[in-house]
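If your schedule permits, I should be very grateful for your opinion on a structural question. I would ask you to consider whether the tokens describe a fold that such a sequence might reasonably adopt. Thank you for your consideration; the sequence and its tokens are set out here.
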Amino acid sequence: MGRGGVNQERRMNRFEEICDLCMERRLTQEEAALMLGVSDRTFHHWSKRHEDGGVDALI
């Protein structure tokens, strides 16, 4: 696996960790978005896609 694949895997792991915290209500959607460096709206869309299709839906 090249460097790009490793970086993508790290980003996915980070997203899943933050998404889990948000689902447990330990973070707000706004806090989660800020941690990932995206807008609230983008985080919401990513979360919905992840919920519907798992990590593969985000790639």
